[in-house]
Amino acid sequence: MTSAERTLPELDWSTAAATGVRLVRPGPRVDATHATKAVADLYQYAEQAQGLVRDTARIEAPTDTAPVRVVDRTAWLRCNVESLSGLLPVSERTTATGHITGAQIGAVLAWLSTKVLGQFDLFAPAEVAPGGRLLLVVPNIVAAENELGVDPADFRLWVCVHEETHRVQFTAYPWLRDYLRDHARIVAELTDVGAPGWQDLSRLISTRGGERLTLLDLLPDTVDVRSTIERVTAVMSVLEGHADVVMDRVGPRVIRSVGQIRRRFETRRDGRPGLDRLVRRLLGMDVKLAQYRDGATFCRHAINTVGIDGLNRVFESPETLPTLAELHEPALWVDRMGRTS
C-alpha cells in the first residue's frame, strides 16, 4: 500500500473526551491543606530536578520550551485527547465507527488516568506547548506514595527526576519528537479501526481465552507495521530505561530512600491482580514494563563500557539508535558505535 492510498482511522474525539471524563474515577480523599502542599511540592521538585538531571545525564537542554503542569486525572485525560487528536485528526464525517472507537479510546484513557504518575506529552499542540509539556498527575502520585508507604518528599522528587529526564531527551534532541510522531502516524494509517476486533474487544478477549493478547495483536501483520513497531519499541525502551537509570543514579545523596522506593515500586509494577492485570495486558503495559527493564539493562551496559557520554551518542540521530537486536545485546551497539567514531 502506498502512502497516497493510506487513510487515517475514523475517530470521534469529542466522544472520546466525553466518555473519558464521565468514566474517570476520583482520586484519593485529601484535605485542602495537603492537596495544596502536594501541588506546590511537585512544582518545586520539578524545578529542582532540572539541575539534578543535567548534572547526572550530562545533557544540556533548554528549560523554557516545555512547561510543567501539575494536573488532576480529568485534566490529564483532556490533555491527551487534545494531543492525540492532533496526531490522528478527526474524520471529516462522523460515523458509527468513529463514535464507537472514540468511546473505547475514552474508556482506555479514563483507566490510564488513574495509573499514570507523570508524562512528557511530546505531541502537545504547537500553539499550546511547541516543545511538549511535562504533566505530573498529583492524585496518582499521592495515591502511590500512600500505597507504597514511602517518604512523600523523596517519592515526589524521584518521580520528577524521571519525567524531567524525558523532558531533557526531547528538548535537547528535537528530532526524537518528529521521529516518534512519524512512526505513530505510519501505524495509524495502516490500521483499520473498523475491523471487528476493535469494535468488540470484550468478545475478542473471550474468544482468545488464556492466550496473551494486546492491542498490538489487532494491528495488521505487514512488513511495514512490524518494522515500525520494532523501531518504536527500541527507541521507547532506550528512553524509558535511560530515565530509570538517571533517576536511580541521582542516588541517596539527594533522595535518601531511593533504594526503598525502587524496591517497593518494582513490586507494585509487577503485583497487579485480577481485572487490573487483564487490562494492563490488553493495553500492552506488560510490554512497557519490559521496555523499562530492557532499556535500563542496555543503558547500564553502555555506561559501564563507554561511560555516560558514550551512551549519550544514542540520542544523536536515528542512525545511532539501537536496533531491537542491539537493545537485547548492548555489546553489538557499543561495537557499532566504536566502528563509527
From TrEMBL:
Gene3D superfamilies: Zincin-like metallopeptidase, N-terminal domain. GO terms for molecular function: metallopeptidase activity. It comes from the Bacteria. Keywords: Hydrolase, Metalloprotease, Protease. The keyword Signal does not apply. This is Zinc-dependent metalloprotease. It comes from Ammonicoccus fulvus.
